[in-house]
Specification:
The protein is about 20% helix and about 30% strand.
Length: about 160
C-alpha cells in the first residue's frame, strides 16, 4: 500500500467535508444509497456548516499521493450523537477503496489523542446498530451510553 500522511485539515479544504459527510452515511447492503443532496438537510448540515468557525472544530485528514482520502472531525453540536454542550461529537469516513487498511484507525487515534490533549473528558458519536463499525468503535474504547431503535450513542472517556 502506498504511504499516507495524517495532517490537519487546511481552511481551503473544508468543502471536502461535504463529500466525507456523504461517505459517512451508512447504507446497508442491498439498499440504494441516498442522493448526494441528502447532506444538505439541516440535520446533516450541523456537521459541516461553517466548519472551522467554532473554537471546538477540529479535523484531521489522511492524504495519499496529494489526494485527501479520509477525514475525522469533531465539533460541539446538537447532532445524533449529542451528549451535552461540552462534549465534541465525532464523524469519520474514508473513500471506499481505502477502508479496511488501518487508515481510519490511525485517523481516529490521532483525533482521540488530540482531544485528550485539549482537555476534553470524553467524545461521543452515533452509529447505526447494524453498521460493522460498531465493533471497531468498541475496540477503540467507546461504550454505548444510550440507544434508539436504530442506533447507538457511544462515548469514549479519556
Amino acid at each position: 500500500m502506498p504511504s499516507f500522511v495524517i495532517r490537519s485539515l487546511q481552511v481551503n479544504e473544508t468543502p471536502l467535508l461535504r463529500d466525507f459527510l456523504y461517505e459517512a452515511i451508512y447504507v446497508p447492503e442491498g439498499v440504494v444509497p441516498p442522493p448526494r443532496s441528502v447532506v444538505d438537510l439541516p440535520e446533516l448540515q450541523v456537521y459541516i456548516k461553517d466548519f472551522g468557525d467554532r473554537k471546538d472544530d477540529l479535523c484531521f485528514v489522511a492524504e495519499q499521493d496529494n489526494q485527501i482520502i479520509g477525514a475525522v472531525w469533531t465539533r460541539i453540536m446538537n447532532d445524533y450523537g449529542h451528549i451535552d454542550n461540552h462534549t465534541p461529537s465525532l464523524a469519520i469516513s474514508l473513500y471506499e477503496p481505502y477502508r479496511g487498511k488501518g487508515i481510519g484507525t490511525l485517523l481516529m487515534k490521532t483525533m482521540l489523542t488530540a482531544l485528550e490533549g485539549k482537555g476534553y473528558p470524553k467524545v461521543s458519536l452515533s452509529v447505526q446498530k447494524e453498521n460493522y463499525a460498531v465493533t471497531w468503535y468498541r475496540k477503540l474504547g467507546f461504550d454505548v451510553v444510550r440507544e434508539t431503535t436504530e442506533e447507538y450513542i457511544m462515548v469514549k472517556e479519556f
